[in-house]
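User: Just a sanity check before I run the rest of the batch. Below are the C-alpha cells for the first item. I only need the designed sequence back.
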C-alpha cells in the first residue's frame, strides 16, 4: 500500500510544533477557565465524568496517586473508562481538581492528534509540507472550538474519542498495510485506548477489522500481513475486553436496553427513515463538525495546489497514494454507516467521522503535490513549496484564535448563568444552615442548568464540599403515574417550578409536569414556602423550600 518510511521532521520543526502547540494549550486553557469553568457545568452528559473524576481526586488526596488512579479505574463505567482516569493525572499535575484542569485533557488529546499527523504524514508521503497542512487543517474543524455540546469545552467523551480516532487513523497508515509488525502492535494499543475512552467505538472497529481481513485476503502476501492484523486485534482485545467484561451488565443495560429495547429508547426516537438518517449524519458532519471555514480552507488550498501545478513542470504521476485513500474511506464510511443505521440520533457522536475526512483531504492534496516539480531558480521560487503549509497554518491558526478570543456567550446568557449560580449558592447555604444530611431537590422540567446531580457538582466546584442531593424529580425522561409525582414531591426539601416557558416540554416527563402545573403550583403554595421567582434562559421559575428550613 505504501513504501517504506521516506522522510521525517527535523528537530527544529518539532521545536516549532512544540511552540505552536504550547500556544494553543495556553490560549485554550485561559479562555476555558474564564468563559466556561466559571459557569455551571452545561450539558448533562459531562456531569457524570466530572463527578467521577473529582471523587477519584479526593481519594488520591487521602491515599496517594496510585490509589486515586485505581479508584478511578475501578469505578463502574458504561460508556468509557479512560477519561476520568486520565483526569486524575491532570489534577495531580495541576495540584488541584477543577473544571479548567479537566478540560485541558480535551486539548491535550487534540494536540496528540496534531502530533500524530506531523509524525505520520512525512513517513507516508515523503512531504513535510503536507504534514504541516494536516496540522493546520484540523484546527479548522468547527465543532472543537464552538463552545457547544461535544466540543473541547465539554468534558463528555466525544471530543476525546474523535481525537483518539484521529491518532488511530495515523497509526493505521504507519503499519504499511500491516507489513510492519511494530506499527501493527502500536495500532492495537491505539485501538485499545480508543475503546477504553469510548466503548461505543467497538461498534466501529469491529466492522473495520472485518473489512481489513477481507482486504488482506485479496493481497499476494496475505498471510504475514494477516498475522500482523491479528496481533493488532489481539492487543486491542487484551486492553479492552477485560474492562468490557467487568462492566458488561452496565454496558448491556445502557446500550441495548437504553438505546434499543427500552422505553426511554422509544422516547428518544426521531422516526427517521434511511434517507432522513443519512441527511442527518452527512448534514451535521458538514455544518456542525467541519463548518464553512473548513470547507473554504480545503477549497482554497486545493486551488493553490492546482495553481502551483499549472505554473510548474509536472512530475510523472507518483501513484494513487492508496494507503491514505483506503484508510480515509474506511475511517469515514464505516462509522458513517453505523451512525446512519442506528435509529437514535445525536450530533455529539458524529466527531468520529472527522478523521476520515481529514485523511481524504490529505490524500487529494498528496495527489496534487506529488506532481509539482519546483524549480530552484530564481531564488524567490525556493519559498514556493512552503506556501501551502503557511496558508494552512494561517487558516487554522486564525480560526482557532478568533474563536477562542470571541465572547463565548451573549450578555443575556451570562446573566442567566450568574443567576443560576446565585440560586445554587442559596440552596447550598440553606442546606448547611439546616444541617440536612441528604437534601432532596425537585425540578419540574429536565434542564441542563439545575437539578440534584448538577447541584452536587456545583457545590463541590464552588465550595469543595460534597452534598448528596437526592434525585427524585426528575428521575427519568419518561412520564409516570400522576400520584407518583405528588408522592415524590412530599420528599423534596426544595422544589423549582417552571411558571412560564416556550412550548409544552420536550420529554414525556416535561409534558406531564406541564400538564400538572396547576396542581403542582397549588401543592407547593400549600405545603412549601415560596423563596423567590426568577427568570433564566427564557423561563420564569419559582423556588420553593420546606417551611421549617431557615
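Assistant: Here's the designed sequence for the first item:
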Amino acid at each position: 500500500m505504501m513504501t517504506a518510511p521516506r522522510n521525517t521532521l527535523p528537530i527544529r520543526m518539532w521545536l516549532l510544533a512544540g511552540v505552536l502547540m504550547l500556544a494553543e494549550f495556553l490560549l485554550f486553557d485561559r479562555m476555558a477557565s474564564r468563559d466556561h469553568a466559571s459557569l455551571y457545568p452545561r450539558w448533562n452528559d459531562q456531569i457524570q465524568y466530572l463527578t467521577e473524576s473529582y471523587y477519584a481526586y479526593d481519594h488520591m488526596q487521602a491515599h496517594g496517586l496510585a490509589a486515586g488512579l485505581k479508584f478511578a479505574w475501578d469505578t463502574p463505567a458504561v460508556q468509557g473508562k479512560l477519561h476520568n482516569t486520565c483526569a486524575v493525572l491532570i489534577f495531580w499535575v495541576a495540584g488541584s481538581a477543577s473544571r479548567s484542569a479537566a478540560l485541558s485533557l480535551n486539548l491535550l488529546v487534540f494536540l496528540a492528534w496534531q502530533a500524530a499527523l506531523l509524525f505520520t504524514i512525512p513517513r507516508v508521503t515523503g512531504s513535510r509540507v503536507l504534514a504541516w497542512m494536516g496540522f493546520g487543517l484540523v484546527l479548522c474543524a468547527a465543532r472543537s472550538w464552538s463552545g457547544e455540546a461535544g466540543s473541547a469545552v465539554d468534558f463528555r467523551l466525544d471530543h476525546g474519542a474523535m481525537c483518539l480516532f484521529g491518532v488511530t487513523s495515523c497509526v493505521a497508515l504507519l503499519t504499511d498495510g500491516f507489513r510492519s509488525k511494530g506499527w501493527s502492535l502500536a495500532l492495537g494499543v491505539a485501538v485499545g485506548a480508543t475503546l477504553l475512552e469510548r466503548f461505543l467505538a467497538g461498534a466501529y472497529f469491529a466492522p473495520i477489522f472485518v473489512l481489513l481481513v477481507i482486504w488482506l485476503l485479496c493481497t499476494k502476501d496475505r498471510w504475514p500481513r494477516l498475522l500482523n492484523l491479528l496481533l493488532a486485534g489481539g492487543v486491542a482485545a487484551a486492553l479492552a475486553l477485560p474492562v468490557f467484561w467487568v462492566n458488561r451488565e452496565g454496558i448491556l443495560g445502557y446500550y441495548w436496553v437504553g438505546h434499543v429495547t427500552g422505553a426511554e429508547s422509544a422516547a428518544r426516537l426521531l422516526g427517521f427513515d434511511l434517507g432522513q438518517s443519512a441527511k442527518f449524519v452527512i448534514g451535521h458532519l458538514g455544518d456542525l463538525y467541519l463548518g464553512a471555514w473548513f470547507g473554504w480552507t480545503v477549497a482554497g488550498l486545493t486551488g493553490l495546489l492546482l495553481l502551483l501545478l499549472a505554473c510548474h513542470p509536472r512530475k510523472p504521476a507518483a501513484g494513487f497514494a492508496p494507503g491514505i485513500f483506503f484508510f480515509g474511506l474506511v475511517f469515514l464510511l464505516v462509522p458513517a454507516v453505523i451512525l446512519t443505521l442506528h435509529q437514535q440520533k445525536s450530533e455529539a457522536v458524529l466527531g468520529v467521522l472527522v478523521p476520515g475526512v481529514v485523511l481524504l483531504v490529505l490524500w487529494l492534496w498528496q495527489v496534487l503535490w506529488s506532481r509539482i516539480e519546483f524549480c530552484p531558480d530564481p531564488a524567490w521560487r525556493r519559498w514556493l513549496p512552503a506556501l501551502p503549509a503557511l496558508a494552512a497554518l494561517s487558516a487554522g491558526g486564525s480560526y482557532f484564535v478568533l474563536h477562542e478570543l470571541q465572547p463565548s456567550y451573549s450578555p443575556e446568557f451570562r446573566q442567566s448563568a450568574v443567576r443560576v449560580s446565585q440560586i445554587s449558592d442559596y440552596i447550598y447555604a440553606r442546606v448547611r444552615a439546616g444541617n440536612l444530611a441528604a437534601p432532596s431537590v425537585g425540578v419540574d422540567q429536565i434542564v441542563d442548568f439545575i437539578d440534584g446531580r448538577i447541584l452536587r457538582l456545583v457545590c463541590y466546584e464552588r465550595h469543595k464540599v460534597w452534598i448528596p442531593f437526592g434525585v427524585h424529580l426528575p428521575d427519568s425522561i419518561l412520564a409516570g403515574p400522576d400520584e407518583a409525582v405528588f408522592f415524590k414531591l412530599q420528599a423534596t426539601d426544595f422544589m423549582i417550578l417552571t411558571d412560564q416557558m416556550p412550548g409544552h416540554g420536550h420529554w414525556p416527563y416535561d409534558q406531564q409536569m406541564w400538564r400538572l402545573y396547576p396542581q403542582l403550583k397549588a401543592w407547593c403554595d400549600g405545603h412549601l414556602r415560596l423563596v423567590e421567582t426568577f427568570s433564566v434562559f427564557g423561563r420564569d421559575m419559582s423556588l420553593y423550600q420546606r417551611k421549617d428550613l431557615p
